[in-house]
Amino acid sequence: MNYLVIDLEMCKVPKDYRNKNYKYASEIIQIGAVLLDERYRRRDEICLYVHPEHGVIDNFIANMTGIKNRQIKNAPKLRERLLELTEWIGDREYQVFAWSNSDFSQLSHEVRSKKLQDEKNPKALWPRKDGSIIRKFLERNTVLKKQSVFRRL
After folding, report:
1. Of residues 12, 32, 8, the one with CA closest to residue 111
2. Contact in structure between 122 and 30 (CB atoms under 8 Å)
3. Strand order in 42-49's β-sheet?
4. pLDDT for the residue numbered 104
5. Can you give the three-state secondary structure of the chain, one letter per residue?
6. Nearest to residue 44, comparing CAs of 90, 105, 109?
7. CA atoms of 73 and 23, how far apart (whole Å)
8. Comparing C-alpha atoms, which of 95, 2, 7 is closest to residue 41?
9. Distances (CA, A) of 44 to 76, 94, 144
10. Tens digit of each residue's pLDDT (9 = 90 or more) over 88-113
11. 26-36 and 42-49 as β-strands: parallel, antiparallel, unpaired?
12. In 3D, which of 50, 68, 49, 46 has the Cα closest to residue 58?
């Protein structure tokens, strides 16, 4: 069994930039993940910058995350980055860890609001085989708060 530790960085979405399709206060700008083996040894890692469709990186976010506008300006949007993440993890068995439920909530909101569902089955979030990591991450009962298990790692 492998362990996948995911951390999302987000930027603010000003109220003026929100609309009926995207009403949330933040948007993903980076997906970071580390793959650990059964002994918690680092096997691989990935860092993916995401071009936000609604949000902006202000000085507060830039200082907190270290992410600059130039790093996301030409980056792919969320759909492409999620596909890249699923290709990276491949067919390995894994359990997902996230820093907190806020990462789960943010990804869930964006998948829904950006309509990243399968066109053939709009009620299913990312049901295709290449989206298994996204489904697993969005299933609330599989996400463990990294904070609660950090002492064991």
Report:
1. 8
2. no
3. 42-49, 26-36, 2-12, 94-98, 144-145
4. 82
5. CEEEEEEEEEEECCHHHCCCCCCCCEEEEEEEEEEECCCCCEEEEEEEECCCCCCECCHHHHHHHCCCHHHHCCCCCHHHHHHHHHHHHCCCCEEEEECCHHHHHHHHHHHHHCCCCECCECCCCCCCHHHHHHHHHHCHHHCEEHHHHHHHC
6. 90
7. 22
8. 2
9. 21, 13, 20
10. 888 788 888 877 778 888 988 888 88
11. antiparallel
12. 68
Percent of the residues in the chain that have a pLDDT greater than 70, as a whole number: 76
Q: What is the pLDDT of residue 83?
A: 83
Task: Output the six-digit token pair for 3.
Answer: 């362990």
As given in the structure block, the two tokens for residue 122 are: 């709009």
Residue 48 has pLDDT above 90, yes or no: yes
Residue 98 has phi, psi (to 5 degrees) of -135, 155
Are the CB atoms for 46 and 88 separated by under 8 Å?
yes
8 A C-beta contact, residue 40 and residue 28: no
